[in-house]
Design brief:
By secondary structure, this protein is of the alpha/beta class. It has 2 domains: about 60 residues, GMP Synthetase, Chain A, domain 3 (2-Layer Sandwich); about 240 residues, Rossmann fold, CATH 3.40.50.300. Helices cover about 35% and strands about 20% of the residues. The protein contains 10 helices and 14 strands. Strand 10, helix 7 and strand 11 form a beta-alpha-beta unit. Helix 1 packs antiparallel against helix 2, helix 3 crosses helix 10 and helix 5 packs across helix 6. It starts with a helix and ends with a helix.
Length: about 325
């Protein structure tokens, strides 16, 4: 058996990812699996072993290597709950993915994980390889990891700080494959999970979500202050539940006020990324696990995602 025959057989299934060496009847292959998720990596290794079953080869050894990928984290945060942060995080991740980015979604809202419902994978559980979690594939093309996939539905998670920090680390340091950006849905407030995120995992930037009314904006300013003090740039502020159009007459009203978040962004000197209206369509689609950003006709979340993508491109 000639070495070029073995090299050609391996190249047909692994391209230039594999380097082959022959030592008599033993074949050694070094496979560069950088950017491959666990299933793709295992499939390629199996294909190499099958391809190299040639006359004269008695032993095959495959060594899998990979460069450590540096991923950028985008934290989605709010000063208080109930402002639609998780819905914004899910749709932001999907809109970034639809625009061509390789994105994963981390549901770091340890005490109130809702992303499995929002992304239509409720009841699924991630697998693990060598104690590393493998994100769950979703119908919208954005891999997900959430505490909601690791505990029984409806079960309360009563953990102290060190346990939440450990759980966050497992989610962020999972096998994210080709994902280059992780959108991280943080719990509301400025507690242990937020501190662990900014100190240990260091987001590239943060998107702050608020509704227009004064009470929500007070807490949003606290979230902005936390990231400012930690040296994490603020990508911008999103005003959620901004305006309600009556489905019967079309008249638009502002039950939570209007323009408060934009004014707060201007006061803080940070970008205003846009408004998300209060509509029954967003609520019903989200409850059904069909996020609006997955619809090609989306005109709400795509412009917000485009601004986030531009910010990431200009802040390497």
């Amino acid at each position: 058996m000639q070495q070029h025959d073995v090299i050609a057989a391996v190249a047909r299934v692994a391209g230039d990812r594999a380097t082959v060496r022959l030592d008599g009847a033993r074949a050694g292959v070094v496979l560069d699996a950088t950017g491959l998720d666990a299933p793709a990596r295992d499939a390629m290794e199996a294909a190499i072993r099958d391809a190299i079953r040639l006359p004269g080869i008695a032993e095959v050894r495959v060594v899998v290597t990979a460069e450590r990928r540096t991923r950028r984290l985008v934290a989605v945060a709010s000063g208080k709950g109930g402002v639609g942060k998780s819905t914004l995080a899910a749709n932001l991740a999907i809109a970034l993915s639809r625009a061509g980015a390789h994105v994963g979604l981390v549901d770091a809202d340890i005490y109130g994980p809702s992303q499995p419902r929002l992304l239509g994978v409720e009841g699924t559980r991630p697998e693990a390889l060598d104690k590393t979690l493998i994100p769950v594939a979703t119908p919208v093309g954005v891999p997900l990891l959430s505490m909601g996939q690791l505990v029984e539905p409806g079960r309360a998670i009563a953990w102290r700080g060190p346990m939440t920090a450990g759980a966050l680390g497992q989610l962020v340091d999972a096998d994210w494959g080709a994902a280059e950006t992780l959108v991280v849905d943080l719990p509301p407030g400025t507690g242990d999970v937020q501190l662990t995120m900014v100190q240990k995992h260091r987001p590239a930037g943060a998107v702050i979500v608020s509704t227009p009314q004064d009470l929500a904006l007070i807490d949003a300013r606290r979230a902005i202050d936390l990231f400012d003090k930690a040296g994490v740039p603020i990508i911008g502020l999103v005003e959620n539940m901004a305006g309600y159009a009556c489905p019967s007459c079309g008249e638009v009203s502002d039950p939570f006020g209007r323009g408060g978040a934009e004014a707060a962004a201007n006061d803080a000197g940070i970008p205003f990324l846009g408004r998300v209206p209060l509509t029954i369509a967003i609520r019903t689609a989200s409850d059904a696990g069909q996020p609006p950003a997955a619809d090609p006709a989306d005109r709400i979340f795509a412009p917000i995602a485009a601004q986030v993508a531009d910010w990431l491109a200009t802040h390497p």
